[in-house]
Amino acid sequence: MNVKGTALAVLPIFIESKFGKEGIAKWLESLNSKAAELYKDANSVKINQWYPLKDSYLEPTAAMCELFYDNDHKGAWEVGRFSADYALKGVYKAFVKMTSVGFFIKRASLLMTTYYQPSAMELKSSTFNQAVLHMTKFPEAHSLIESRIGGWIQRSLEIHGCKEVTVEITRSLTNGDPYTEMILKWK
Fold it and tell me: How far apart are CA 81 and CA 78, in angstroms?
């Protein structure tokens, strides 16, 4: 399974913004040689290139959570939120705010395939304050990845203008369920 460089590029930016240059150095030292080489400087990740998910995305996220979050998935969730802020700025932020919440969520679910290959996510239901998403295809599913995606969705809805946004993962491919279910609620 592969992940687009766009999803990778934000990780060192997040770590440096939260934990400083010392934090980024500590994180780089903890990575395997392949990942350390990929993240060695700000321009080494090519945003339009595809990278192996496990080596370039999952393991570096796990290392960050281990180093700075006592192995708590909260770190992955926070990276997802930061990634939404990073991606949805300028013209994209205006687009997000101009669309209906339902349209935005449907569009966001379709974006999965632009970041992860192969993958699929479907909007199963949507009302004025709740939606249900099913990630139906993700061969290398992992709870850290689901957390990053959940954090991204939560923050993107906040950017849209939704209040008190929650994203609850009620089923998980990681746990052997047939899909990962995310229940989104907002006011």
Answer: 5
Would you tell me how many other CB atoms lie within 10 Å of the CB of residue 76?
A: 25
Q: Shortest CA distance to 87 belongs to which of 148, 18, 2?
A: 148
Task: Report the residue count for the chain.
Answer: 187
**46-59 residue pLDDT tens:** 999 999 999 999 99
The CA distance from 41 to 38, in Å, is 8
Distance CA 142, CA 76 (A): 11
Q: Give the separation between CA 55 and CA 38, rounded to whole angstroms.
A: 10
Q: Helices (H), strands (E): how many in the chain?
A: 8, 7
- Here the tokens at position 166 are 């929650």
Q: Tens digits of per-residue pLDDT, 4-33?
A: 999 999 999 999 999 999 999 999 999 999
- The span from the CA of 145 to the CA of 128, in Å, is 27
User: How high is the pLDDT of residue 75?
Assistant: 98
For residue 91, with 0-12 CB atoms within 10 Å meaning exposed, 13-18 middle and 19 or more buried, which class applies?
exposed
E strand or H helix at 51, and its extent? Answer: strand 50-52
Rounded to 5 degrees, what are φ and ψ at 10? -75, -25
